[in-house]
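Backbones bend. Our protein:
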Amino acid sequence: MIFHFLALAGLRLATKAGRRFGYYPATFYVRESLLALKVDDLDLAMDSFRLAAGRQENHPKVAILREILTSEINFRRKKLLERIETPNLSPTQREALQQGVEILDRFLEGVRSPKGMLPGAGVRRTARDATDVEEVAFEPVGGAQAPIEAESETIVEEPTEDPMDILARALENAGDEGDSEGRSH
């Protein structure tokens, strides 16, 4: 009986380690990222995106997820900038919201980079609002990464439709053409 319990605990630990270190196919991490966005967890969505991009960067579903995350981050950034423009904010509240905008800018840089997110570029939120943040360094998944070229200004694109509708339409068009991730028959 104790061996059965130990075997199940070992299997569970191996499954979690496989998911965390990128041993599953890219489509698994794309699905995990979309589920995280449904429950409004941008941190988990970015972690899953980073693993999907590190696993198979040129996968069509990873490209679609990159567009969805970009529109989601731009939408959140726009809302924070609107709140910053409110005249009734105290300087500490304004500074906290500005830190939230900087966090979203770092996430946006991570989405635009070739393999997801550069080391040290991520910030994990510890509270529901942008007042309480801590720095978290992310390690690269696919080896050394190319540096991001600096952009002179950040362009905020306003999403015209729901990102989930975009994904559903794109997945219908893409079909299953990119689902064979190194599988041999």
